[in-house]
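Sat 14:20. Reprocessing the chain from the morning session after the first attempt stalled halfway. Input below, unchanged.
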Amino acid sequence: MGAFVDQPVETVAELLKDRSISAAQLCGHENAFYIAALRSAAPRRPSTGPWLGA
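Finished this time. Tokens:
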């Protein structure tokens, strides 16, 4: 898991996609648009379960 504060969507998405981390905890000023963009950029892998709480 990784904890992120106000990081670009691309940074978090890349770590999720290359499996460097299995979950992302967002601790900054991320809003619903950020979360939607992150989910689009790094979709959940069904075999590993959810990576981002709703």
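The chain has a mean pLDDT of 87.
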